[in-house]
């Protein structure tokens, strides 16, 4: 199995090199790995070092609360942050709380040995899904403790199959696995791995911090001032937008919509505008009378996590495509969260439905009925909002648990 694994890793590296001239992501990863190889030849870290590895941007957000606490509580530690994906590295390569941000080299024995020797970590954290055979073996050989953070497991994974022994051996190299739920813990226990703790998901700690640091937007405050019924729709795609725009043009003037599309290029914003027959404006336009508009189109990035606080109901896009986007950023403000039918891969969406703080809608008619019910029954809306907030409150605390256990003596 190790031979097949090595062949696969080698083939992937060759494919990256061949695709680099024609594919932006392949080029970024290929060139980024080369840059990492150059940098680690010069890198000799002294003192206490923590290495945190995240596949991409989403996993980084799960690891970020731990980095922040390390730097706050143990500033003598150096932090090395690695990414597998360009979509994570390119966005966070200048993250100021990390002393070094690098691409993870290809998982070969030689690369693993050179990287770990250069970084010389005292503790290592792999976030959520990352399992790299040679890195884990080299860390075990050097007796460097390795911890899994916000991990979640499904019975369909190879670890739990009769032929999954080689993969189970990777799990056994972890000193402790901090998993998101009891289901994951029971799956691990079923294959004889008991060094786990049900800690929850560190993303909850992150979204709570984001909400506490939310920004105020005077233009949006003017827009919502004349309406007590505001829907905030985040990370929407065309199928989501068709439902939302159809709805806002059928209901009375008391309902307003803030829509932050996933794609904000000019052509897409224009497509949204062409579908509207009610007063609207773009955020970047600085409308003269925003309070008289029914729809605000957010055509810039970096605002969404703060904008949710201006709504009474949230809609999260992506559920009519490959899957929904981040529901927690909205739920933490205490509001019901609606989304399309493709949500089952996302634990927090399933949980929100279970606690009656979230709802899936399969089409425009179901969305319209759900919104009518929410607006017509204020007490129910208030209760559902409390359910969403309480769910986030209950799930916070994973970061504190991990820090208490692993840094108590530092």
Automatic annotation (TrEMBL):
Pathway: Bacterial outer membrane biogenesis; LPS core biosynthesis
Keywords (A to Z) from UniProt: Cell membrane, Lipopolysaccharide biosynthesis, Membrane, Transferase
GO MF annotations, alphabetized: Kdo transferase activity
Active-site annotation: 59
Catalytic activity: lipid IVA (E. coli) + CMP-3-deoxy-beta-D-manno-octulosonate = alpha-Kdo-(2->6)-lipid IVA (E. coli) + CMP + H(+)
Residue stretches making up the 3-deoxy-D-manno-octulosonic-acid transferase N-terminal domain: 41-205
GO biological process: lipid A biosynthetic process; lipopolysaccharide core region biosynthetic process
Role, per record: Involved in lipopolysaccharide (LPS) biosynthesis. Catalyzes the transfer of 3-deoxy-D-manno-octulosonate (Kdo) residue(s) from CMP-Kdo to lipid IV(A), the tetraacyldisaccharide-1,4'-bisphosphate precursor of lipid A.
Protein name in UniProt: 3-deoxy-D-manno-octulosonic acid transferase
